[in-house]
Amino acid sequence: MADATATMTMDKGLDHTIIGESTKSFIDGQKGVLEYVGIDIDSLARESTFEETTFLLWNDRLPDADELDAFTNRIRSQYDLPDGMWDALRGLPHDAPPMHVLQTMVAMLAAYDADCDVQSREAEESKAIRILAATPTIIANFDRLRRGLDIVRPSADDTMAESFLRMLNDETPGTATARALDVCLILHADHGINASTFATMVAIGTESDMYSAITAAIGTLRGPLHGGANERVMRMLQGIDGLDAIEDFVLGRLSRKEKVPGFGHRVYKAIDPRATYLKTFAESIATETSNLELFKMSRKIEEIMESQVGAKGIHPNVDFYSATTYFSMGLAIDLFTPLFAMSRNAGWAAHAMERLEDNRLIRPRCQYTGPHGVEYRVDA
Ligand code: COA
């Protein structure tokens, strides 16, 4: 039997496959460079805001002051949820994983959008804004409800970072903490065709809609090999009995060929520039919030990993120091990955909209290795 796949190349993790052109983010994994639309991630982290960075990713340029104002207001006008979604959020089991809650609620947003099936750049952007704006409201209020607290509605005066923190804690966030979160959102906003962005593109590539594409991405981000790693890092740190136990812990894992969460990357073989930035950040927040021991433990893990596997190109990735940063901000561990999603909404939507400008259905093949001509027979 002729096998059409015989002349194709097997590329199981798509490590060697380019699936299209993109102007969104540039990664040089050998040098440890990350740029959004040509702007170095350090400059954005220092100078920009998450809202401005999102505009950049969606429009391939920075906005002027009026455009930023208009864009920000569009987002803020969509912070609140339809009444039916508040009811649904209240009705969800309190022990549900927050990533599943987020995925469910984003899918629900589609049900409340009469234009869900309108296909145009404008319509997809409006859907993306609804998702982006509603995400902090969903995550913060689910956390409140499971803690037995009342919901706090969002305020249109807040940035996204402020809004999330205000709803979560029902108090005005400190400027430094809100800015710290804003920078974390910038750092996580986009990263080429990672697994969840690829999931977005597979879904949008069928000419489905932005809600479907982003729910696919949320489910994909959840995995411990991807965004779920930040939660694993934190649980690992909590499971180690202080600084003195670190060496044995790390060497033990490596000798058993177990991976250390927060290390390694498919693309970066030099240090992930986001990790470098987050390390400084983690240290100052951990110091301010009396979590310095946690930071010191992280640094010691990094030192030992560097001496053991650094030469193989295994360094801390974005999840490693974001764990200490988020924990020091007082966030529940299972909110770390939802926060990643809150930021990555920007990148998912950017790539989905870009893909629709020059779409081709994504439909790879696999090499069939099973039998042929098997007789249909069910044993009695
Ligand atoms: N700890 C210890 N060893 C690691 C490692 C880690 N975190 N990550 C990779 N390695 C080792 C593997 O054991 C393997 O070693 P070997 O060649 O001796 O068998 C080698 O490095 C290649 O690993 P592999 O898993 O094939 O590379 P990949 O490109 O598929 O891995 C990740 C990328 C991210 C999936 C992987 O590094 C990983 O699982 N990291 C931990 C989870 C994580 O932090 N994910 C978030 C990424 S942003």
Q: How would you portray this structure in words?
A:
With 380 residues, the chain is an all-alpha fold. It is 56% helix and 3% strand. A hairpin with a 2-residue loop joins strand 2 and strand 3 (39-40). The chain binds coenzyme A.
Give the tally of β-strands: 3
Largest beta sheet: what is the strand line-up?
Answer: 1-2-3
Mean pLDDT: 95
- Relative strand content: under 5%
SSE topology string: EEEHHHHHHHHHHHHHHHH
Give the bound compounds. coenzyme A
Considering DSSP H and I runs of 4 or more, what fraction of the residues is helical?
A: 55-70%
> Number of DSSP helices?
16
Indicate the radius of gyration in whole angstroms.
Answer: 22 Å
Question: Which regions contain 5 or more consecutive residues with pLDDT less than 50?
Answer: none
In whole angstroms, the N-to-C terminal distance is 32 Å
- Structural class of the secondary structure composition? mainly alpha
Largest sheet: 3 strands, antiparallel
Envelope shape: globular
State the oligomer.
single chain
Task: Give a short synopsis of this structure.
The protein has 380 residues and is mainly α. It has 16 helices and 3 strands. It is globular.
Which features would summarize this protein structure in a list?
globular; single chain; binds coenzyme A
Strand and helix map with partners:
Blueprint: E1 25-28, E2 33-36, E3 39-40, H1 41-47, H2 50-59, H3 65-76, H4 83-91, H5 98-111, H6 121-146, H7 160-169, H8 175-187, H9 195-204, H10 210-221, H11 229-239, H12 246-255, H13 273-288, H14 292-309, H15 318-328, H16 336-357
Antiparallel strand pairs: 1-2, 2-3
The structure holds coenzyme A.
